[in-house]
Design goal:
single chain, 166 residues, alpha/beta, Nucleotidyltransferase, domain 5, 5-stranded mixed beta sheet, 7 helices, 16% strand
Length: 166
Amino acid sequence: MSGGVAWITGGIVGAVRMPDPEDLNTLLFTLSPIRAVYTELVPWVLGQRISPAAVGKLHYQRGVCEGLVMGRGIRLVRVEPKIWQQEFRLGTRNAAGSYGAWKRKLKTEATRRFPHLKVALDTADALLILEYARSHEAAILAGDAIGTGIPENEPLSPKPATSGSR
């Protein structure tokens, strides 16, 4: 799986690379009780450079994550990439020049907002989605939340694990 998971519990923010389903289920249990999970609503059509197999894997991954969340009775909030990204006023992906440049820009913003964490490309979106959730929901401000960031337009080929901080 690719992407990342970020959370806040007891006022402490953490983030890790997206774990496999069994480990994600354990993480959800460990962080319980969870008031809400915010996740990126990945577009159904991802562009010409992305293979249909990669799109299928991405949506399979999203379905597994959402199934684990809903199966635990946790409120799920889906947010479109352009909506949560506008929150940070970083411009647009097209203006960044390339997909990689845009992802690096998001990582830089996540690092600025969470200087105590080791932010990776895998966890940057999740941390920013978590920040979006905190700024948009009063109930989250008073409690605990978890955010997942599944990168848009990214093939889901296996990657070496990247370090994230809890």
